[in-house]
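Weekly modeling sync, notes
Attendees: S.R. (lead), two postdocs, one rotation student

Agenda item 3: backlog of single-chain predictions. S.R. asked that every request posted to the team notebook include the full sequence so nobody has to chase files. The rotation student volunteered to paste the first one in as an example of the format we agreed on. Action items at the bottom.

Example entry:
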Amino acid sequence: MQDQYFRVTHAALFCCDLAFENSLDEMRYKIEQLARAKDEDPANIPIVISVNKCDKGLTGHALTMEQVRQIAAEYRINKIMETSALDGTNVKEVFRELVLLTTDPFRRHPEWIEKIENGEPITTITARKKKCNVM
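Predicted structure, as returned to the notebook:
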């Protein structure tokens, strides 16, 4: 059932909890499941990683931001945001960024700007869909 939702999803928000060591493994599994269901490279899917517990500081966690950055680099996800469910830090901003990544392909692929400036063609831009499903 989840694969059916993933197939029609246009963007994804993955949450990682610094307090739980298995949080990264679960996130990696979901990213791979999304990519497999869409038959798409994760770099071509608008994805934001929300790292929860930023209100607790950067010490005393089971995970580090560097571990999160490594997974983001592995899947070429360029948007990681530190959030706090406790005090609301960056919660609205995460969703705003996800919408912007979904609607603006240049935000998702900044390297395209350089290609355009150099006169190189970009053949991967597709027509916009009328609906947007955010998972």
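Discussion: group reviewed the output briefly. The CA atoms of residues 49 and 80 lie 5 Å apart.
Action items: rotation student to repeat for the remaining queue; S.R. to check formatting next week.
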